[in-house]
Amino acid sequence: MKTKKILALLLAAVMMMGVLAACGGNSNAGNTAATGSNAATSAANTTAEPDDELAAIQKAGVLKVGVEGTYPPFTYHDDAGNLIGYDVEVAEAIAGKLGVKAEFTESDWDSLLAAVDSGRIDTVINDVTVTEERAEKYDFSTPYLYIPRQACVAGDNEDIKSEADIAGKRCATAQTNAMVPDLEAKGVIIVPVDTSGQAADLVVQGRADFNLMSPTVLAPYLDAHPEANIKVAFEFEGEPAKDAVPIRKGETRLVEAVNKALAELSEDGTLKALSEKYFRADYTTAH
User: Fold this and answer.
1) CATH superfamily ID and name for 149-239
2) How many CB atoms lie within 10 A of CB 10?
3) pLDDT grade, residue 63 (50/70/90)?
4) Is the pLDDT score of 261 beyond 80?
C-alpha cells in the first residue's frame, strides 16, 4: 500500500511540474507576442521625416516631372511623336544625377503645379519662372536659365519702341505668364493665347500689338518660320526671368540634391550645350 501511495504521489508531482511548465511557456509566449505587438505599434506610430521625398524618389527609382509637351523648344514632340526639348533633357540629366529615371506627365499648364501640390508629381520642369508669389508656396532650386524679357512686334510696327509705348496696347500672351500682373498695371490689354505660335500669329495679323516671345522662344520660331514678319521691339528693364525647379516646401534634402545636380551639370558644360542646342545661345548664366 505504501508503495502504491508513493507512486501515486510521484505521478501527481510529475503531472504538476508539467502543468507549471506549460503555464510558464504560455506566459513567455504571451509576453513575446505582446512585445512584438508593441514593437509593431511603435513602428506604425513613427512619424516620417518632413523632408523624405528624396528618399522616396530614390526608392521608387523615378523622378516624376510635369510638362506641357506643347511648348517648343522647352517641351514638345518631334515628328515621330517623341517628347523632346530643352527642359526634357534638363529633367533627364537631373534625374540621372539623382540615380533615377525621369518619368514625364503631360498636362495643361494650369494643372501642373496643382499636381505638385497633391503629390501626384514631384516637380514641374517646363520654363517655370521664379516669382515672389510662387516662392511663397514652393522652394526653388538655384536658377538654371536666365532669360531676357523682350517685346516683339510686327516687322513694320514703329509705334512700340520702349516700355513707355505699351500703355493701352494689346499683348498676346498666356494668362499665366508671370509678367501679366505688371503689364496690366501699366494699362496693357491682355489677349490670351495658349501657344507661342498663336502669340506670333496674332501680332503678324494685327490682332495684337506685341507679344512676349523671349529669345529662347523667338529663335527657334524664326528657324521654323523664316518668313514671319516679326521683330524684337525692346527688352524690358530689370533682371531677366529666372527658370528654376519648384519643389514642395520643407523638402530640403531634395532641394539640396537638385542644386548639387544643377551645379555639376553647369560645371561639366551640359547646361550650356543644351541651351546652345535649343536656343542658339547660352542663357544658363546671369549676364
Assistant:
1) Periplasmic binding protein-like II (3.40.190.10)
2) 10
3) very high
4) yes
